[in-house]
Amino acid sequence: MKPTLCAWLLIGMVGSLLIGCSPLAVLSTQQPQAPVKTESNGAGPAAPSPLTSATPSTPSASSAAMSPATPSLPPSPQPAEAASPPVLADRKVTLMAVGDIMVHQEQLEAAWDVRKKAYDFAPFFAKVAPLLKSADLAIGNLETTLAGSDLRFTGYPEFNSPESLAAALKQAGFTAVTTANNHSLDRRETGVLRTIAHLDQAGLAHTGTFRSAGERERPLILEKNGIKLGVLAYTYGTNGIPIPQGKPYLVNLIQPALIKQDIAKARALGADLVAVALHFGSEYQRMPNESQKKIADVTIQAGADLILGAHPHVLQPYEWRTVTLPDGSKRTGFVAYSLGNFISAQRRDYKDVGGILKLTLHKRQDGQTVVESPEIIPTYVHYVRKAGKRHYVIYPLPQTLQANQKDPLLNGDTYRYMQRLYKEISVHVASLQSKKKTG
Ligand SMILES: [Zn+2]
Known about the structure:
The chain has helices at 3-17, 23-28, 105-111, 122-125, 129-134, 164-172, 188-202, 213-216, 256-268, 290-301, 397-402, 412-429, 431-438, and strands at 91-101, 112-113, 118-119, 137-142, 176-178, 205-207, 220-224, 227-235, 273-279, 306-310, 318-324, 330-336, 341-343, 353-363, 369-386, 389-396.
């Protein structure tokens, strides 16, 4: 076949496929690239630029290559023969992800509403809800069970929280939660099953724990603006509580072969990108350990585009990592090693600090979907005792510091502390990238 004829056939194919087509089909056509729009970093009262990650090395050759952060790809010249190619819409989705969503004993007290005689978690999220709602998709790690009051609500060490937490998360703007973590089995199998039922009732998507082998075989795919994001979740373990015999589907463990197989399934279901939530690392360590880096690399090799880490309960830096595939080609993935505690009653030593990872999923006109413009919006869990009652409120630091009006819950000292935290955390989360840049 002559190249020109081939090109026209392929252009026709792409044109007729448009939405809902397999990204692989689009990519295999080698359609001439239309100019790609570069974009600014985030809308609204966003964090200043130091939060943006540095540029990674070459994007991978695989179907869903990762792209560098800002600056985005430069416009590529139009080949002469593609005089009137069909224009594929340039699609974008904003994704936000947070770390551990925990409910310690003190928070149970704080959430108890005497008048309503019910647990109301909405105040925890009131200040971050507008931000989360501004995203197309928002994901967090639910590090507790919602196993019902008959199994007693408790905080550490074996968590069980009121199911109204699920509705509060949904209301706050979350799309999905991951449930594979070391506390998944805190109320054993019953807890897993009831947690899932309560999440379903609240209309929150979930992945990481499952009711059956069949359910586990269907990866979670979140779809928005014609972009499909596969979401998978795995944990290093379950605090020594054994997974019931013959029921490995209850909790996803970090097993490279399983992860690889699940990523392939998500791709087969049309996922343009795959995010893998990994519950791993050493608690209270502010830098990722070697094991995390190794697992991240293996997960990118298995086809992940994005790794959402949690468990250390403190924020760890993020970075782009490039791995070599068996065929010698390179593949780059974005790794957030630990997003810290989003909400918890843990105080000090950065345990009351978390981060909202914000990034853009961009389906370009050439059909490739890439991850762009990652940034971390630092958050701080403010704790105050007022009128004999505990209050926990998550504050997004840049938005709080830039707001015109003072928040009545915060005094001058707290503002100054937040200012200090914000500066320090912004440098910390980008420290792996800046090291790479200079060294
Ligand atoms: Zn954990």
